[in-house]
Design goal:
By secondary structure, this protein is of the alpha+beta class. It contains 19 helices and 16 strands. It has helices at 2-28, 48-59, 73-85, 96-102, 125-128, 130-138, 140-143, 187-198, 209-213, 282-295, 323-331, 341-354, 379-389, 408-417, 428-437, 439-443, 562-577, 588-596, 605-619, and strands at 170-171, 177-181, 229-237, 245-253, 264-271, 301-307, 311-319, 361-368, 395-401, 422-425, 445-456, 461-467, 487-490, 494-503, 530-537, 545-551. The strands form 3 sheets. It has a 6-stranded mixed sheet with strand order 7-6-5-8-9-10, with helices on both faces. A hairpin with a 3-residue loop joins strand 6 (301-307) and strand 7. The termini are far apart.
Length: 620
Amino acid sequence: MKQRHDGIRVLLALVCAAVLVIASFALAGTAAEPALWVGPLAAGDAGDAVLALQVRLAQLGYLTQAPTGQYDAATTEAVKAFQAANSLPVDGICDQATWALLFSDAAIALNGDAGGTDTRTTDGLEAAAPDKAWEIAYMPIYTGSPMLAAAPAAEFNTNEYSTFVENRFMSVVSDPFSTFAADVDTASYAQLRSLILDGTDVPAASVRIEEMLNYFKYDYHQPAAGEPFGVTMEMTDTPWNKDTRLLLIGLQAKEIPLAERRPQNLVFLLDVSGSMDSPDKLPLVKRAFLLLLDELAPADTVSIVTYASMDQVLLDGENAANKVRIMAAIDALSAGGATAGADGIRTAYALAKKHYIKDGVNRVILATDGDLNVGVSSEGELTALIEEEKQSGVFLSVLGFGYGNLKDNKLEALADHGNGNYSYIDTIYEARKALVEEIGATFQTVAKDVKLQVEFNPARVKGYRLIGYENRQMAATDFDNDTKDGGEVGSGHRVSVLYEIVPVGSAFALPEIDRKYGDVQLVDGQAEWLTLNLRAKEPDADESSLYKYPLADEVYTRTPSDNLLFAAGVAEAGMLLTDSEWKGTATYADALKLLRECSAVRGDAYKEEFVYLLTLLERR
């Protein structure tokens, strides 16, 4: 009798859960995703959402036990199995990407054909309908792309971005030098990706083309012995302007092997104010830092500072081997109160200095939406504070979270002035990219105060335009001044730079200034187009070293490499998003054509994802 009652209870649970799922589909008005999505689900969670998850996993054959509404070990293993079979990152956590695919017709069942197996392929479409073939091939839901779903759009929007004036064409006669600081930030690209997937317009001020370029990997030359960077230069005809040429300069930083990485003294500075009380903010912060914790060596040191209406030290120099204690401190975080960020910054730097490791990595990692509203809060005041604090030798990494109240201008300024980098974290996949896949690049600096100066030969070049890097421009005289900050580059980082070049004899018109004293004297070395001058300091040095790389004729090609094809497609899309004055004949269709000619796209989930984003933009 007891077995019969147990069976009835299980049957009732299944029926109720099925009704719940069906009702949620009806409320959502779509068969793609139930309306009861409430945020990431993981071991220890319970409730209706977990019950619906278990019912769907059972339907697809991944869960064999009766649904209980408790996210137990069996559910975790079932989710992992589903993720593995459906080309998703396997972590056993049901995030929005897993949830959306699980309840879609494309979900692949354990036996490979139930539950709406994806039968769409690109076979036969390449010739008949190449656009459609690529759209199918690179839809994130089929490629295991790191970004499958965007956070819902905010009901209000108080985002803040820095304004900038787009770089214009410069005459080599009057301005032979182009000087700027290196930049390896990627926040702008992650933000625009989230907005495009959400169907929201991308604010032009949020688009920094250099950050779009530097988000992706390229096949650049490795550094020669004794040099911090390998240098790759290539030039071809500009796709959107028949009268100019497109020059790619690529820097590849040396990569520090895992066994040679320096010990780390890290201070987690976490915003727990009321503005962080959102699923895409503090809950995502907690998951991101738990990912990072798994990557630390046992001997690394971790401190945790939180700030809201006041700052608080949760951990003071804890050994990373004590993961349980660190995890408990992170897991217990909750949001509420105002945002006295400056106090938290001072406390975090004090802890970093207290546990300073000579010849090691000493870094504050700030996670926030940037909405500092108590005490020092303006961009100018904050950068002055960071300039003062960084003299201690402690670097700053900034992780931005959330949308609708994101102070992008403050976060970018903090990273730039704090000898660090700025990433935007919109999903756990982006957190994994920044804090796991690229942990060496994020924390292990190989060169600081990196500056680039391109000197153009007026015998070959009439004019030029630097694409992007507007807020990293420097005076030519600052290049040799070691007191002027450049950019910081980490282990394995790449720096990608594009110039639009106007060759001598081109019909392209440049603004010229009448000169009283006649024609410029042409320099020696007529075969050279330009010379790239590069300055960089060792991580703990105060004086920079100079490296020179001339560019001769042999770099010009009518059949550009994958590096240049992909970079050109990214730049073309960036100019369209900003409605650039210099976009010429650019269209999203043309940008897609460049990317489809690039063989390096296939197999690279991030590049595949970008192709998919452009297909969405082309439809608008």
